[in-house]
Amino acid sequence: MPKKPTAADAQLILQLYDLRREPELRKARNWWLVEFWPDNAADYMKHGNTLGTQENNWLRQVMGYWGLASSLVLNGALNETLFFDPAFSGEMFFLFAKIHPFLKELREKSQNPGMFANIEKLIMSTKASRERFAQVSKFVAARRKAMLEAARKSL
Q1: 3-class secondary structure per residue, the chain
Q2: Which of 39, 57, 86, 109 suits 47 as a labelling partner, its CA being 20 to 30 A distant?
């Protein structure tokens, strides 16, 4: 049974939330949520291999943030129940669902077998979080499909 959230857990969640409000991270999160919709590993690697570009910085900044936050939970520094509250971690599920369909190939192409490992391990760690991920993945797939159809119609 997970430990009950403490005041220290609440303080850490608030600090993590405050970091998300940092102006550059806010821009990076917006790019990930709205503009960046990779269809495959190659789409991801277009930005992953262009060091020094704004998109590469944003790519690393956002997933680095969620990887760090996941590590805090995995290592017992932050209460899992508090972290998994949808108001806090919903974005992590959404972003991971965008890359999950081609994660194996992405790890191979980047020669980084541990890429997004903390995020994946945490999301897959409980039945509830796996079920939530399945729901979010369906939503992301439907959104991706709708965006592709809209793009085709506009051509």
Answers
A1: CCCCCCHHHHHHHHHHHHHHCCHHHHHHHHHHHHHCCCCCHHHHHHHHCCCCCHHHHHHHHHHHHHHHHHHHHHCCCCCHHHHCCHHHHHHHHHHHHHHHHHHHHHHHHHCCCCCCHHHHHHHCCCHHHHHHHHHHHHHHHHHHHHHHHHHHHCC
A2: 86
Number of domains into which the chain is organized: 1
Question: Per residue in 28-66, pLDDT tens?
Answer: 999 999 999 999 999 999 999 999 999 999 999 999 999
pTM metric for this prediction: 0.93
pLDDT tens profile 72-104: 999 999 999 999 998 999 999 999 999 999 999
Residue 111 falls inside a structural domain? yes
**Angle subtended at Cα 71 by Cα 116 and Cα 94, rounded to the nearest 5 degrees:** 50
> What tens digit of pLDDT does each residue of 99-132 get?
999 999 999 999 999 999 999 999 999 999 999 9
- In angstroms, the CA 1 to CA 118 distance is 21
